Amino acid sequence: MVKLAGYNVEADLLKNPGVVNQDMTAALTPETFSAAYARISRSAKDIVTLRREARKDVETARKSNRTIIFEMGHHSVAEHAVFNFDIIGVSRLALEEIEQFRLVSYTEKSQRYVTLKGDYVLPAEIEDGESQQLFRDTMALQNEFYSGAFNVLTKYVFNKYPFLTGNNSDRNILKGWAKEDARYILSLATQGQVGMTINARNLEHLFRRFHLSGRAEVREIGERMHEQVVQIAPSIFLFAHPSQFSRDLTHSFKDNFTPLPACEKLPGRDPQILHYTQNGDNIILASFLAVFNSLDYNRALDIIENMGPAEKENIYKDMFKNIELFDAVPREFEMVDVTFQAVISASNFAQLKRHRMATLLPGNYDIRFGCIVPESIKVNGLEKEFLEIIDKTDKVYLKLKEKYGDAADYILTNSHCRKVTMKMNLREVYHFMRLRADEHAQWDIRDLAHRLLQKIKPLMPFSTMMLCGKSDFVDEFESLYHRKPKLIL
C-alpha cells in the first residue's frame, strides 16, 4: 500500500482557515510555497505578501509554477513542496530501489528489532501456478527455519550474556541479536514498510527512475505515488517519465558488451581498494592553507610538500587535539576519495545503502558468491540445515530465473551476496567508521568497516589518525594525546 500521508501547507492557513476566500481544499497545497518563493528574486514585495497572494489565488499560482518550472527551467523551486508517504507491505527487494535516492529521508521497519511473521510479496511477474507454488513452498521453508532459529538463538544469547537479562531493555537487546542472525535465512520478498519524506523535485526523479525499473512492484509503487500527488500539486511535476537518453543507457550497455562466461573469476569477499587520492594528507593541508592564506592552491601544495613528515604530523595533531566524539571533520577532508569493491550480503547491503551521500554502485545478486552464515548459526548446530535451505533456494532461483528473469531475485535471502563498488570522500569515511566500526554496530557491516579501516589508514596515516568507531574513540585519543578527550558521552 502506498499512501500520501502528508505534505507541507502554510501555517497561517492552519491557524486561521478564514484567510482563504476560496475552496479550502484547493488552498491546501504546497504549490503556494513554490509559487511564492519563485517570485522572491524578482519582486519587491516581502515573502509574506507573496505567500498570501499565492494562497488567495491557487490557479494563478499554478500557472506561475508551470511558467517558472516548465518554461523557464527553474526546477529548484519545486524543492519547496514536500511530501510524506507511508509505503507498507512492500518487499525488501523493492525497498532497495525505494531507498536509493540521496536527498530523501527514510525510516524503515527493521528486521533486527521486529519479530517477523512470514509475510512476503509474491512478484506479479511469476504467473503460472506451478512456479507460484514453488515460490510459496520455498518461502514456507525459509520462514519456518527463521522461527525455529530465533527461539534457539534467543536461548543462546540469554545464556551467553546472563548479566543482560535483568531488565526489559537489556532483554530486548538480546532478542534483537537473535533476530538479526535468524533473519539471514529470510527472503528478499519479505514484507517491510518505510516512511518517506521527499521534495517534489526528487519525487519527479523517483517517478522517472521507477518507470524504468525491471520490477513490476516498483513500477506500480511509482504509479500509485504519482496518482496521489498530482491531485494535490499538479503544477510542479513536468518530467514524470524517463527521457530517451535514460531509456537508452541500459540497452546501449547490453548491446555493446558480451556477457562473460560463467567460469570467469569472481571477486573475493575481502574488500579491495580500487583507487584512492594519492598524497591525501598533503592535499587536505594544502586545501586549508590555500583558503586561510588566500593562496593559489598549487603554491599551497608546494609549501606542504616541502614540509617534513614530522611537521605535517604535528599539524594534524594540533588539528585533532580538541575533537570530540560527535564532531565531523572539516570539509577539506572531502578533497580526497577512497574507492573500494566488496562482496557483501543482502543484510550488509541493507545498512550500507543508508550512506547515501557516497557513490554506491551495487551489482546484481549472484548465487555464485555463495552466502554469509552468521557465527551464531554455526555454533548452535544450525549451519547444516541453513545451507540445505540455501541450496534448495538456489535451485528454485535458477528455475525462476530461466522463466522470469530478475523476478527470481525475490526468492534469494538476506545471506545471499552481491558485489558493490563504493566511493567515499574522507569526511564520509569518518562518518561511516564512527557508526559501523563501533562495537555496537551489526557484526556483518562492522566486519566490513574494520577490514576497510585496516586498508585505508596506511594510505593517509596523518589525516586518518582519529579514524575509528565510536567505541574506540577514547582509546585512540588517549593513545595520541596521553589524556582523555574533554567530553565523553
Largest sheet: 4 strands, antiparallel
Radius of gyration: 26 Å
CATH class of the largest domain: Alpha Beta
So, CATH architecture of the largest domain?
2-Layer Sandwich
The tally of strands reads 8
- Tally of discrete structural domains: 4
What distance separates the N and C termini?
41 Å
The class by helix and strand makeup works out as alpha+beta
The mean pLDDT is 91
Give the count of helical stretches. 20
**Outline, from the CA principal axes?**
globular
The portion of residues assigned to helices is: 40-55%
Within the largest sheet, what's the order of strands? Answer: 1-2-4-3
CATH topology of the largest domain: Gyrase A, domain 2
Beta content: 5-15%
**SSE pattern:** EHHHHHEHEHHEHHHEHHHEHEHHEHHH
Low-confidence blocks of residues: none
Question: How would you characterize the overall build of this protein?
Answer:
The chain has 489 residues and is of the alpha+beta class. It has 4 domains: 2-86 and 194-248, Gyrase A, domain 2, CATH 3.30.1360; 119-190 and 373-411, no CATH class; 280-320; 331-366 and 417-481, 2-Layer Sandwich (Alpha-Beta Plaits). Helices cover 49% and strands 12% of the residues. It is built from 20 helices and 8 strands. The protein has helices at residues 11-15, 24-27, 31-38, 47-56, 58-71, 92-98, 129-160, 168-182, 200-211, 216-232, 244-256, 280-292, 297-305, 309-320, 346-352, 375-379, 383-404, 426-436, 443-456, 473-481, and strands at residues 2-7, 82-91, 105-108, 191-199, 272-276, 337-345, 359-365, 417-425. The strands form 2 sheets. It has a 4-stranded antiparallel beta sheet. A 4-stranded antiparallel beta sheet has the order 5-6-8-7. The longest helix has 32 residues, at 129-160. The chain is globular and about 75 Å long. The chain starts with a strand and ends in an 8-residue tail after the last helix. The model has no long low-confidence stretch (mean pLDDT 91).
